[in-house]
Design goal:
This protein is an alpha/beta fold. The chain contains 10 helices and 7 strands.
Length: about 200
């Protein structure tokens, strides 16, 4: 992969941990019901930018009786976000001396605002940001990758994409993007070390 010029990184379970179960436990404490909300169609639609945070709060109230004020909602919704993966972030920063870097993530405005407010080290230093809610499409839709390539200006063969989701990797590979499936944090570290050693 000597022709790599752009490193494309997923966010959740790559740059940061996720705490989906903690979030659903918080939903249970609030509603008394075992509602599964994260990574389901409603969440995907929010990550695709189909509606605003205010509209999402209204939908959650009507569908799940989950009542949250505008002030409460961001912290509550962001309980599904975990800690920064410091070793991974350190390696990406090193890679940034040799390559351009991009975050390519299915995410939503609430989560990105929360990470900025909490001064997460997982974002803020990349050359490009390809967020699903801004692009209006979520992975593994090929349009996500087409838009990401347009934003960054690189050809597929000059990109390396790292993601924990195998479906996303399959789509990227079909589009000619070099891609590595990293279901565990140790896999991400191995992929980055391999790139830095070339």
């Amino acid at each position: 992969m000597n022709d790599i010029r752009l490193l494309m990184m997923d966010l959740g379970l790559v740059l940061i941990d996720l705490e989906i179960e903690n979030f659903h436990q918080a939903v249970y404490r609030k509603t008394g019901e075992n509602h599964i909300i994260a990574n389901r169609p409603l969440h995907h639609r929010y990550m695709a930018g189909e509606f605003t945070e205010k509209q999402l709060r209204q939908i959650l109230m009507e569908k799940y009786n989950l009542s949250l004020s505008a002030v409460e909602f961001p912290d509550f919704w962001s309980q599904m976000l975990g800690k920064d993966r410091s070793e991974v972030i350190s390696l990406v920063r090193k890679a940034g001396r040799k390559f351009k870097t991009a975050v390519c993530s299915n995410t939503d405005a609430t989560h990105i605002d929360f990470l900025k407010r909490e001064q997460s080290k997982a974002i803020g230093f990349f050359d490009y940001y390809c967020y699903s809610f801004e692009m209006g499409v979520v992975k593994p839709d090929p349009t996500f990758f087409k838009k990401a390539l347009n934003i960054t200006g690189f050809q597929p063969q000059n990109c390396l994409f790292i993601d924990d989701n195998e479906e996303n990797i399959i789509t990227a590979l079909k589009m000619g993007i070099n891609a590595v499936h990293t279901p565990k944090e140790s896999d991400v570290i191995k992929a980055l070390n391999g790139l830095l050693e070339e």
